[in-house]
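FORM 7B: Structural annotation worksheet

SECTION A. Query
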Amino acid sequence: MSSVTFDTLQFAKRLESGGFNAKQAETLAEAQKDAMSEALDTQLATKGDIIRLDGRINLIQWMVGFNLAFSMAMLWKIFS
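SECTION B. Predicted structure
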C-alpha cells in the first residue's frame, strides 16, 4: 500500500467543526485516507512498471533501427 500524506486528525477536527460528532469525523477521515491510498495504488506507476516499460522502449528502438538499416540496404541494392 502506498504511503499517503493525509492529516486525518486535522480532517476530523474540521468535520467536527462542521457539525459531525467525533466518531463520525474519525470514521470518515480514516475512510478518506483509505480511499486515497487505494486510488494511488491503482493509478501510479511503480519502479517495476517503469523498468519494464524502459526495456520495451529499448527493444522497440532496436527493432526500428534494424528495420530502417535493412530497408536502406535493400533500396541501395535495388537502385545501384
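SECTION C. Observations
The two ends are 62 Å apart (CA to CA). Residues 10 and 64 are 54 Å apart (CA to CA).

SECTION D. Sign-off
Analyst initials: ____
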